[in-house]
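Task 17 of the worksheet. Students: predict the tertiary structure of the chain below and write it out as structure tokens. Keep your answer in the requested format; marks are given for formatting as well as content.
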Amino acid sequence: MALKGNLRDFSTSQLFNLIHIARKTGTLSVENSEGPIEVAFRNGKLIAASTITKPAKLTTALLESGRISQRQTEAIERGAKEISDKELGLMLINAGVVSRSEIIQALRKHTLDIVLEMYTLPEGGFRFDSNRLPPGELITVAIDLDGVIIEGTRRLKEWKELSDELPNLDRSLKFAKRPNIDLERLRLTADEWRVISFINPKNSIRQIARATSLNDFDIRRIVYGMLQAGLIEYAAPVTARGQAVSRAVASSRSRARRAQKPEVKRSIVMKLIDRVRRI
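Model answer:
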């Protein structure tokens, strides 16, 4: 019989503890307003996670991590529909597009981002189906649940604090006229620089999150830090938002994030990889 319940009565940490201690194998499905979340486990370890907008696909993970561009992703998905992720991964490695460690890191980050976001769900029906696993052609990465539970618990506490500080993601932002920070010594992460590139009174925080592919937790954390540092401030409400984000997204997606290298052997699939490398 499948395990069923609701997150308001049985928390994500409790579920993961049960799966971890019992070394369960199967898939946990969680209801969400934006579509179901599916998390797979093997022998008590996390191996994959997916949503409707973030499937457990190699191209999705590589795009999210910036290892390949949007144009490369579209070219691969058009020309390699019948190729499994395992085959595709090997060909991308052989073609010099990505390394094995970059693939593992991208898939690990993709999985953890989805799972840790579950900790912010106040409720949602769940069902655990034993022995149901992702298709064999997908690449999975085994992740110990001990660290996931610790990080998830920390994130839940931080999420509650950030939600109190930034309850409205529909507010817009602007740069402070006299920032309380030494700009010459400013050290920001890649995600923070991406957020800064969209700071504009026409763009809401929610729109910036979508444009930069950041979840509600990460966008709140980044914006709150910049507000506290005095780098940005709230802008007065405006109408007709979104056009600036759309133009900026189109522009940013056109930039390839990696330089490509040497020739590869010619075959139908390898010609595709060669073309991807030149985009």
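Marker's comment: The radius of gyration is 21 Å. The mean pLDDT is 84.
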